[in-house]
Amino acid sequence: MARSTTGDDGGTGTAAGTASGGGPGTAVPERLLAEATRLFAERGYDRTSVQEIVEAAGVTKGALYHYFGSKDDLLHEIYARVLRLQTERLDAIAAREGDVRERLADAAADVVVTSIQNLDDTKIFFRSMHQLSPEKQKAVRAERRRYHERFRSLVEEGQRDGHFRPGLRPDLVVDFFFGSVHHLGTWYHADGPLSAEQVATEFSDLLLHSVRQP
What is the pTM of this model? Predict the structure, then answer.
């Protein structure tokens, strides 16, 4: 039941931008994020200095501090931009007219595809989130909770409409599904046997089979 998720132009390009987009013609904030992502992936957040980031991006420290207050802000934005995009896409899918089963399937497939397209970003963040300030950690958790609540509302809608099993706890359904999504970074490889769209279809179908009425 799941459908491949693509952009408006029919492509499946990187959702939020990665290190491949950090060339000289790229805007300064994107260059800084791209090089920070690459360096954090190679060396780790705590072993990467601000000086190394600005040298790799070909800008000054003043330029970095103009757009980002600190290295901490860079780490936060690496994940926040992915989450913002996923939230926008989920809101659009959830707001559509039509069968909630199709919308849940599309929402599930979309978060898998966008997570895989930005796998370095999410892996870096979850590995280093504990190094953010308490305020930023709290903000990220609140943003992620809003996303999960929007996703959960589709499960609840399906229960009200009689499509999904009424005895299921929607919060556990969401926790179970996103546990698998967050685990993608431990095993998925772009040069492996499965494309992002194939994984998305499998995950989405598994979710729908687990919640639908017999």
Answer: 0.83
